[in-house]
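Technical annex B. To support the medicinal chemistry partners, we prepared a structural model of the target in complex with zinc ion, based solely on the information shown next.
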Amino acid sequence: MTYLPKAAVNGSSSLRVLGNVDYRLARNVVVNEYRKGHLSRLDICDAHPELLRAALDAGENTQEDCPICEEVKLRLVSYVFGPRLPPSGRCVGSKKELAKLANPGRDLACYVIEVCLSCSWNHLAQAFSLTSKGSG
Ligand SMILES: [Zn+2]
């Protein structure tokens, strides 16, 4: 789980994580509604083709089965938003890239999305801010 905030700042002493929010609870509500039959796969397995491509190309493997199809392991995709980044965010493929984007004085908002490449299930897993200590 490279993209969890703690891992994101490993090896980079200048980065600090602020306001980490775990969306697991909200995610479990959706999964439970699906299991009870209140939601269909059409409702929840709607990953955008771009997101699926990002998961395939730059996604991080996890050891967790997809909660919906239970056929494959979930992948994590990280997007960052901030000054001089595209309005739709930048997909980050590595910790190094993330550290490079977090220049001093440039706070980044990071969103980690779990994606299933088999059934297109996707849900926000975590959101946090990265700030550089050098921002003085
Ligand atoms: Zn799945």
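Notes passed to the chemistry partners:
The mean pLDDT is 87.
DSSP finds five helices and six strands in the chain.
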